[in-house]
Every structure is written in C-alpha cells, then in structure tokens.
Amino acid sequence: MPEEELFKTEEPRSRAEIAEALTVAAKQIETGTVHLESATEDERVTIPDTPTFEVELERLTDSETGEQRYELEYEIRWTG
Description:
Blueprint: H1 15-31, E1 33-37, E2 42-46, E3 52-61, E4 68-77
Antiparallel strand pairs: 1-2, 3-4
C-alpha cells in the first residue's frame, strides 16, 4: 500500500515545550478530533473510539562514529 504523508514537522524543542504539545494532543485525542498545524500545513483528523496505540523506544548506533541516538515514538493507527 503506498504511503501518503499528510503532515510532518520536525524541530528542536525543550522538554517543557514537548510536554505541552503532548498534553494538547492528548486532550484532542480524547475528544476524537486532532488538529495538526505548522507554518505551512494544516490538517484535521478524526480518531475512532478504539485505534491501535503503539509505544516504541529505539537505540540506534552510528556505524562510523559509534554515537548512539534514541528515538521515542508514540503511534496511533486505525483504518477508515
């Protein structure tokens, strides 16, 4: 199935700013409608009552430098 990216933003933020963004997202998820907005994009999506929720923590190691990077991902999936 081909993937169509509808919205993406990536920027450095403080832990406090990230926590605030997640708090706002949690409130929107609870209502069932999420509004995603950046300087160039604006999307709204309705989330069903019982989507699949995945939490993933990864450690990646750069093969050349040995430097480790961590990724913490929260993912909500549904069909519709």
